[in-house]
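User: I'm new to structure prediction. If I give you an amino acid sequence, what do you actually give back? Let's try with this one:
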Amino acid sequence: MIKLLVVTKLISKLGYLLRFIIFKLANRNVRTRGFVKIGRRVNFKIAGSCSFGTGCVLKNNVTIFVSKGANLEFGNRVNIGHHNEISCFNDIKVGDNSFTAAYVYIGDYSHSFTDSEIPVYKQELKLGKTEVGANVWIGRGAMILKGSLIGDNSIIGANCTISNHIDKDKIAVVSRPTIIEKKK
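Assistant: Good question. You get back a string of structure tokens that encode the predicted 3D arrangement of the chain. For your 184 residues, that looks like this:
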């Protein structure tokens, strides 16, 4: 039984190593400062600049998109949870030792809806910068949107939508929906 467990762990580690090697060969423009532990079914589409610090982990079913001319930067020991999506059209930074739970979205753009005669998907994107500080925990289902700046040592509760600044050492939780803008 112990030998089976050892063999299973060895195969798992070889899988991580193989996925990392394939990732590096397919994405030569990505900088890594060490080994990145890449889970199963992680989807990368990287046309811009992307860098990973040492000890980063991408769990299963993560999607990372970096548009041409955009910059995505992960600090050291960043852990991205299962089924996360990171969509970068401009600039996203995630600080050292930050963790996300499952189903988290991090983006740096939003859709414009200035003309009600034109479908939203055909209107221009509004770009911004998104930054997650060091030692930040982001709970399940949270959405970190364009213009967000989350200070160091903060906690973002499950299902929060963040589109502004959260000071360092703060805890943000969902209370009730708020209308932020009326569609024209």
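You can read the tokens as a compact description of the fold. Here is one thing that stands out. The helical segments are 2-26.
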